[in-house]
């Protein structure tokens, strides 16, 4: 199955999750809100993201200053790992709250959530 077809099917399944009528697949989707966000996870994620933002600025300076390539690569790997850590915590929150809520709902909502989780796992694995 072509990627565009899969994407359109997933978009349709997500529309069912939101309970609204199907819309044009090319139209921008309305921003979705989390079912619940643990305050501690939100605070920690924001703190980590601000730290990562500082690391990115440091990387920009390193490139501008023509620092040794291997040193820059090491710092890039550090930023990537920091982002993965934020992603893991947000995924835990998503599974505890959003996914749990959706999986307790009607069949179309469950199916859409399963597709979303599979998509997230495959993206995370890349």
Can you describe what's shown?
This protein has four helices and no strands. It has helices at 3-18, 39-64, 69-103, 107-125. It has a single domain, classed as Metal-sensitive repressor, helix protomer (Methane Monooxygenase Hydroxylase, Chain G, domain 1, Up-down Bundle). It is mainly α. Helices cover 76% and strands 0% of the residues. The longest helix has 35 residues, at 69-103.
Mean pLDDT across residues = 82
Strand content: under 5%
Shape-level CATH architecture? Up-down Bundle
CATH-defined fold name? Methane Monooxygenase Hydroxylase, Chain G, domain 1
- Specify the number of helices: 4
β-strand number: 0
What kind of sheet is the major sheet?
none
Please identify the top-level CATH class: Mainly Alpha
CATH homologous superfamily grouping: Metal-sensitive repressor, helix protomer
The total tally of domains equals 1
Structural class: mainly alpha
How much helicity do the residues have? over 70%
Radius of gyration: 19 Å
Q: Helix and strand string, N-terminal first?
A: HHHH
Q: What distance lies between the first and last C-alpha atoms, to the nearest angstrom? A: 20 Å
């Amino acid at each position: 199955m072509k990627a565009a077809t899969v994407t359109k099917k997933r978009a349709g399944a997500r529309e069912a999750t939101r309970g609204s009528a199907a819309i044009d697949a090319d139209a921008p989707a309305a921003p979705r809100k989390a079912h619940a966000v643990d305050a501690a996870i939100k605070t920690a994620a924001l703190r980590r993201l601000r730290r990562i933002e500082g690391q990115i600025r440091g990387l920009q300076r390193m490139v501008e200053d023509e620092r040794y390539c291997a040193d820059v690569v090491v710092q890039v790997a550090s930023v990537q790992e920091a982002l993965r850590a934020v992603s893991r915590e947000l995924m835990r929150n998503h599974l505890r709250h959003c996914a749990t809520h959706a999986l307790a709902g009607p069949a179309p909502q469950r199916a859409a959530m399963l597709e979303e989780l599979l998509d997230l796992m495959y993206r995370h694995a890349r």
